[in-house]
Amino acid sequence: MSIFFDNHSQVTRRYPLRVAVIGATGSIGAQTLDVCRKHPDKLQVTALAAYDSLGKLVASAREFGVKHVAVGNEARRGDALLEELPAGCEVTFGAAAVTALASLDDNDAVMNSVVGAVGIDVGYQALVAGKTLLYANKESIVVGGDLLMPLAKPGKLIPVDSEHYAIFDCLLGERLSEVHRIWLTCSGGPFYGWTCEQLAGVTAADALAHPTWNMGPKITVDSATLMNKGLEVLEAKQLFEVDVDQVRVLVHRQSRIHSMVEFVDGTIKAQLGPSDMRIPIQAALSFPERWETASVREDYCAMQPLTFGEADEETFRCLALAKEAGRAGGTLPCAMNAANEIANAAFRAGTCGFLDIQRVVEDVMNQTEVEPVTSLEQLADVDARARAQARAVLQTIAR
Q: Is residue 334 included in any domain, yes or no?
């Protein structure tokens, strides 16, 4: 089923739109709440979830007067901070409690800003319940797109990643059959132009110094390895019904063009704007309307020249490996993503090198027997097996 439609009038929103924010204390969750502050007449926050970070979670629950809070970390049950939740606010614990917020009757929309494959259950439950899924959890589409996309009715699944919202915006009113190529823009990360020899000695601190975007640590390291862009290629494949090789990564250091769509007649649509994630977040929340922005507008007369370049898939092997997984399909993207999550965390912890991330991913992919995706339970098994294999590879590296 396509997420697109011919007429915006097919999508109706009731106001205030009641929003559950899953991953409320992370970068995207915090910026979602910032958008909700700017539009209190249109957006009502009714539920919040976070794994930990109880101070931030409780403060937001009090500010917005939410009715439901879920804490993913069951070890925080009974924490004194939770006594400061607003009167009448229900608090639940564990992964199942976080997922349950996605289908509450008093939510109209679910912002899924959980990082990693763990977010797939939230997306699945939101779509099954008929909620509008606003998602910044690309891993869930990469891993489980074969299960999620058939559930997505037109206008009910809206991407929040700046690149994918840009593509979504460019495709409104167009026919997917007339798309020739998607140009997926990429900042290039902090190591653009570096060689393998230079990359061998970089630290997590080096990788976390992103030149443009303010993101969480996992995604920032993924951006440095270009795995983030690889995941986004697979995300675009699922969302926009194109082949992996119809999506071309374009390095654009200024991060002002958020992506482009080239059509069969040679015309190209591009979406431009500031490097501010509140813009695609607000666009997803307001769709199909457009609300006044709170972001600083660009002065294009004063802007420095925009430049473009090629992504180096030989040096940054994660991008090539992700595309390989996308071509194979089935359960291979799940295994690839799981291996990357383990290796990414190990690099940030200082227990492996930067280039070891791609080595771990490739080794796990080579060990994976690819099968068609059939269920969430199957994907959980593949994920667990790939994580165990990745840890085993890391142990050989440590020796």
A: yes
Q: What angle do CA 340, 276, 213 make, to 5 degrees?
A: 35
User: Could you say which of 288, 318, 348 is where a domain stops?
Assistant: 318
Spatial neighbors of 97 by CB under 8 A, at least 6 apart, are 49, 70, 71, 72
Nearest to residue 235, comparing CAs of 119, 317, 128?
Answer: 119
Provide the number of structural domains found in the chain.
Answer: 3
- Per-residue tokens: 33: 């709440």
Give the tens place of pLDDT for each residue, 109-163. 999 998 877 889 999 999 999 999 999 999 999 999 999 999 998 889 999 999 9
Range of the domain at 371: 329-399
Which residue do the tokens 């059959």 mark?
Answer: 177
Supply the CATH number for residue 341's domain.
1.10.1740.10
Using only C-alpha atoms, what is the Rg of the chain?
Answer: 20
Percent of the chain whose predicted confidence (pLDDT) is above 70: 96
In a domain, 351, yes or no: yes
Give the whole-angstrom CA distance, residue 22 versus residue 316: 31
The C-alpha angle 71, 73, 74, rounded to 5 degrees, equals 95
Asked, for residue 6, whether it belongs to a domain, the answer is no
